[in-house]
Amino acid sequence: MPNPIGRALRNRRAGHDKLVWTLPGLQAPENFTLTSPAFAHRTPIPSAHRGRIFAPNVSPALTWTTPPEGAVELVLIIEDPDAPRATPATHGITTGIDPSLTGLPESALTDPSRIPGLRHGSGAMGRRGFIGPMPPGSHGPHTYVFQLFAVDHKLGLPEKFGLTDVLTAIDGHVIGRARLDGTYENK
Question: Fewer C-beta neighbours within 10 Å, C or N terminus of the chain?
Answer without folding.
Answer: N
